[in-house]
Amino acid sequence: MRRLHAQARPILADLLGNLSGEALQRFQATVDALIAAISSGKFSQAWQYPRVIGEGMEVFESHRRDNAEELRAQRILEQRRKKAGDSLREAGARLAPDVLARLNRTLRSAVTAEEIDAVTTEMDQSVTVARTSEERRRDREIDRTRSRIRNTLPRAGAAEPAETWQDVLRRFAETQAAE
To answer: In this predicted model, what pLDDT tens digit does every residue of 33-44 receive, in sequence order?
Structure first.
């Protein structure tokens, strides 16, 4: 019996060392129950070590798959957060500093894909508003410049159509040819 326990102990220790959370507690309870039964004098329970080790291997594989899935989901979430952060940095020049700071804080605290998508949507809306505002400002500036140009033209010249750049080039070419 001591030989069986000596053979099973390193394997069980490795399995217990590789588990965590609820899986560890369940398997630890199974191992403790087996050892307690053997310690109480039921030496025939020592033949249960291979079954417990088999169960432990199944629990370990299940735990490993679950952890791999959680890590994969976490990587996908981090990639989404990184992409949203990159978009936020690119849009930073167009956004107000307080909006940018708030969106960055919200993005850092986001723990689900939906929260990250909400930050991205809000950022897109804010950029659209900023872009529209920039376009309006640019259009107002263009209108002001046109009105200044119209105001500086002589009144008599305003009735005549202004000479286009093509007409100026044509007239320049004619004067060059005449010389």
So the answer is: 888 888 888 877
